[in-house]
Amino acid sequence: MLINSSRIYVFVSVLSKLEEVDEKLTTKVKEFSIFDHTGNKIRTEDREIAIIAQMEDPKVAILGNVASKAECEELIRLSKDRLNRSKIGSKHEVSDIRTSSSTFLPEDDVTAGVEKRLAQIMNVPVSHGEGLHILNYKPGQEYKAHYDYFKSKGNVTNNSRISTLVLYLNDVEEGGETYFPHMNLSISPHQGMAVYFEYFYSDPEVNERTLHGGAPVIVGEKWATTMWVRRKQYR
Ligand SMILES: O=C(O)CCC(=O)C(=O)O
Ligand SMILES: [Fe+2]
Questions:
Q1: Which ligand is in closest contact with the Cα of 226?
Q2: Which residues does the UniProt record annotate as the domain Fe2OG dioxygenase (predicted)?
Q3: Contacts of residue 96, Cβ cutoff 8 Å, sequence gap at least 6
Q4: Fewer CB in 10 Å around end: N or C, the chain?
């Protein structure tokens, strides 16, 4: 009887030790995020941005009131005559992966103001941003699921991309969602709203969850602007 109960005791204490070890192995340190805003608002120099929804690992934030109707319309107007078929990758090739048209906007008062605000939201110096990249999708056009970071080694990884903000410039009647297949997340474009996400984590699996795309537009057209941000100064 004595032997049996001490055996049980040893067994139980080994089990609880194993549980402790298991807990240590599975409890990961929370990864650092640059998007360190607290509360439900971000106060930039010239506008109060609404934090509508957030998730962690990777950090994703859905934001409202990022730009005014007038700013969105002006960005569309400035891009209309400058659009070219979008290209992908470091070799800048035309591909079925991305069938939209796009352009990088040169600096003027409106673009500089919006860029500065986006940098404040993203908590980075404006010089780390690649500038405002305007996208236009007509019905049937899309940007298939992709990563914004570069997987190849070399110059580009030297100053890698770390975060993205997609600002919607118009309401899309149907389709055109930004979707994240690994997170079962889909964001419908509404004028002035934005989605932010980041992908510089030490755990590669967390970065891989940021796989995302722009779903085909079904009815209407989609206008958006992307700001990609680099780890170091870019411009
Ligand atoms: O159009 C979208 O919703 C996504 C755009 C995008 O992924 C990008 O510009 O990198
Ligand atoms: Fe992207």
A1: 1
A2: 128-231
A3: 144
A4: N
Q: Ligand 1 pocket check: which of 60, 101, 138, 166 to mutate, most ligand atoms within 8 Å of Cβ?
A: 166
Q: Name the β-bridge partners of 168.
A: 224
Domains of the chain with CATH codes = 41-230 (2.60.120.620)
Q: What is the pLDDT of residue 84?
A: 86
pLDDT of residue 60: 98
Residue 85 CA to ligand 1 center (angstroms) comes to 14
pLDDT of res. 87: 74
Regions of the chain with pLDDT less than 70: 1-29, 90, 152-157
Q: Is 135 in the pocket of ligand 1 (CB under 6 A)?
A: yes
CA-based end-to-end distance of the chain: 78
CA 138/CA 155 separation, integer angstroms = 34
pLDDT of residue 146: 96
Rounded to 10°, the helix 109-122/69-79 angle is 120
Q: Does ligand 1 lie within 6 Å of residue 142's CB atom?
A: no
Task: Note the ipTM here.
Answer: 0.99
Residue 35 Cα to ligand 2 middle (Å): 18
Q: What is the per-residue pLDDT for 1? A: 47
